[in-house]
Amino acid sequence: MTVSRIKDHKVRSGRVISPWNYSMGQTMKFSSWALNRLPEYIWLALILDTYERDKGLRLAATILQEISSYEKSLDTPRLSKILSLPTSAQESIYKSILKRIGKDSLSPLTAVIDGEKNETFWSYFYVPEHSLDSRLLKLQSIIKTNYFHQSNEATDIRFLVVMNMVYQEKIFFSRECSSTIEALQEYPNTNHEDEKMRSYRPMVRSAEMHMGESNKEYIESFWKQIGMSTECKLFYINHKDHGMKSDEIIGDIAEVLEYVWCKNKEESIKNGKLTVIMSLITYSYKVLHETVTNNVGTSIAARSSVRIIAEVFIMLKYLIKMAAEKPNIWNDYQQYGVGKYKLVLLKAREVEVAIDSHVIPDILEMLVNEETWEEFIDADLRYFDQMGIRDKSIFVGEKELFDLMYDYDSNYAHGLWGAVRESAMVKCDNAAHMFHAVPDFSLKQNCADVVPDMVKLMKRTLTLLSEEYELPEWYIEKYKS
Fold it and tell me: How confident is the model at residue 377 (pLDDT cuts 50, 70, 90)?
């Protein structure tokens, strides 16, 4: 399936609009094949399933053609329309059906069609010998087979729907539509493996898409009856851990950091640059260390860890680049962070912070006042250096890192639906439940391991460090590839 690229999308008022939505504007209305139309045509699907494709298509087409000869109100063969007809009209239709197929074929429908409200249908198609479980299983199988709107099986049903319109004389094709006429004539006699079906099937699906509205009450009742009568069948992805020797790289990073710090100890006492650089890298290192040693690389929380290391890398690269024109940027960065802590401290003093809270005002006060009395410290509500992390990533040539790592993992940090769906929900493989997603109460679903990406980012961070300070030769030799 061909999908559009990002450059094909339009950006309007902060929204990234797909090419299809942009071209259609507000005129497009969605009607799901599986959710809204398949339940209406499931009786045709049961016929095709019972008698297989060739015979099933012939039988169903004959039934529809005969019904169309006397019931002109049935422009589409929707089951809800049939059930809403007067008793005499329903009986005529059911007799036409039973002249050609056995009642066993449609008996599964009595599992979802109310017998009290639809006595006529039940009198013709209810089979006492068929248990409720067997009827439900058959419907589940039929729904699953025909769920995807482009499947061969679903397209066969859609072909019958189009032909019903032809039999009802509600649709006509001009001579200019020769390819569509050919497709409808040849479709039932052509095997799905035939190359010609590659062009026939899209024509059939396109013609069926515009065949009227579904009965909302019937659709809701259908899914309620079959959904509440069956159990979820949950499946989940079990991501394996990275399997790499991360303990070794963690040990090597620690040695490198200690080497650089000790080698430049004098500078650390009088120069904020080394302190900031080494502290930022140590911060990332500790995040990686915690993730690996606690074996939480496949956890939700680890996504925020990747985001931290990515942002630290971008920030560090930005600070180094800006230092050429703003030598005091190292101190500015520190003061900005202290100001942010001061804001938290001021707010903490105005509320009663719980004793067991991880926000500890005494520690905040100590850190804020560590070098300068807080009354001389301002707080900046803007981004550091008045540039957001996205703009900083572009400025330092790391837009790709922002787009993939930072932006993706920010979904987890903000609890946005994509991240929630991926990590906190599992799929139900029951077609009767519309393949819905279920909250992962049993904690079966995990996420892809983040450790390999974290290690790559840490290596890139040390490469950035090497541009400012000398690294030990053994590390350069070991990781030169």
Answer: confident
User: b/e map of 343-374 (b: 16 or more CB within 10 Å)?
Assistant: eebeebeeeebeeeeeeeeeebbeebbeeeeb
Do residues 300 and 423 lie in contact, with contact meaning Cβ atoms separated by under 8 Å?
yes
Give the phi and the psi of residue 17 in degrees, each rounded to 5.
Answer: -100, 130
What Rg do the C-alpha atoms of the chain give, in angstroms? 33
Instruction: Give the number of C-alpha atoms closer than 13 A to the C-alpha of residue 33, restricted to the C-beta side.
Output: 20
Residue 15 pairs with which residues in a beta bridge? 12
CA atoms in the 13 A half-sphere facing the CB of 261: 14
Work out whether the CA dihedral 278, 281, 287, 288 comes out positive or negative.
negative
pLDDT tens readout for residues 359-371: 999 999 999 998 8
Per-residue pLDDT reduced to its tens digit, 326-339 = 999 999 999 989 89
Q: Which residue has the tokens 């809701």?
A: 220
> Which residues make Cβ contacts (< 8 Å) with residue 166, sequence separation at least 6?
184
Tell me how far apart the alpha carbons of residues 34 and 433 are, in angstroms, rounded to a whole number: 11
**Burial (CB count <10 Å: 0-12, 13-18, 19+), residue 392:** buried
Q: Is the backbone of residue 52 left (phi > 0), alpha (psi -120 to 50) or beta?
A: left
Do residues 21 and 12 make contact, with C-beta atoms less than 8 angstroms apart? no
**All residues at 6 or more sequence positions from 168 whose CB lies less than 8 Å from its CB, including other chains:** 68, 72, 74, 75
Burial class (CB in 10 A: 0-12, 13-18, 19+), 275: middle
Beta-bridged to residue 91, according to DSSP, are none
Q: Which two tokens stand for residue 64?
A: 């529809």
Distance CA 78, CA 74 (A): 8
243: left (phi over 0), alpha (psi -120 to 50) or beta: left
Name which of 254, 294, 36, 42 is nearest 145 in CA terms. 42
Q: What is the pTM of this model?
A: 0.78
Contacts of 12 (CB under 8 A, 6+ apart): none
Burial of 20 (0-12, 13-18, 19+ CB in 10 A): exposed
**Contact criterion met (CB below 8 Å) for 15 and 3:** no
The token pair at 155 is 């397209």
